[in-house]
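Support request from a user on the community tier.

User writes: "When I paste my structure tokens into the form, the page sometimes reloads and wipes my input. The last time it worked, I copied everything first. Here is what I submitted, just in case something in the input itself triggers the reload:"
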């Protein structure tokens, strides 16, 4: 398990924050039919239950947006990833298929509203600290180019930022060659629901990526 700490700045602004951490060895693949059956079912559930205007009221999403505002970031301009996924579904845009590990993470986000950091653990340098980004931080979001993370909560290793609730970084992204996974579920709404989301994540990882050597922790 990679050590993770939370800065005083984040802890003071977000006293209810609870992180769900998962470390495991995995076998990634390009596509899992059974997983996509579950994803399509989750898409139908979201479309049937929510309008665009209701998505940001989902408790976990609303709490992440509140955290953004506490740090001075506009959550309508830099949407948390779980919100962006659910909005995409409600707008009738099919989810993109990346690889099995990323697809699992997206399914968990859709079901829970948590924005999740998913990293190739072998690409992380040293320990991680959850802090707040500054204007001096250079951050290349996955598929987004350079992202302005000033005012965003960000996980940093010894080389710089690797993940925000809006986007993770190209440097530590998951590929089909990833064999060691590190997941962080960002529970800005408090402890309730985080433990259940961790258990769901482990079940999906075991089922679709043959996860072993699994470690779990709430922080």
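"...and here is what came back when it finally went through:"
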């Amino acid at each position: 398990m990679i050590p993770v700490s939370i800065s005083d700045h984040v802890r003071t602004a977000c006293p209810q924050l609870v992180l769900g951490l998962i470390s495991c060895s995995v076998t990634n693949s390009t596509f899992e039919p059974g997983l996509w059956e579950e994803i399509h079912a989750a898409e139908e559930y979201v479309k049937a239950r929510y309008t665009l205007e209701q998505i940001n009221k989902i408790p976990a999403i609303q709490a992440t947006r509140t955290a953004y505002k506490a740090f001075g970031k506009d959550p309508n301009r830099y949407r948390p990833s779980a919100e962006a996924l659910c909005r995409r579904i409600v707008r009738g845009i099919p989810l993109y298929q990346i690889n099995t590990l990323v697809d699992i993470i997206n399914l968990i986000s859709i079901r829970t509203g948590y924005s999740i950091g998913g990293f190739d653990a072998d690409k992380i340098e040293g320990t991680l600290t959850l802090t707040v980004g500054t204007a001096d931080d250079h951050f290349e979001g996955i598929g987004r180019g350079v992202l302005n993370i000033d005012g965003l909560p960000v996980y940093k290793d010894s080389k710089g930022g690797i993940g925000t609730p809006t986007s993770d970084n190209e440097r530590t992204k998951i590929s089909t060659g990833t064999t060691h996974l590190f997941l962080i579920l960002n529970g800005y709404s408090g402890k309730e629901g985080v433990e259940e989301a961790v258990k769901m994540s482990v079940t999906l990882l075991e089922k679709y990526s043959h996860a072993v050597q699994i470690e779990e922790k709430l922080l």
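Agent notes: The reload is a front-end session timeout and is unrelated to the input. The chain has one domain: 4-218. Residues 4-218 form a domain with the Phenylalanyl-tRNA Synthetase; Chain B, domain 3 fold (CATH 3.50.40.10). Escalated to web team.
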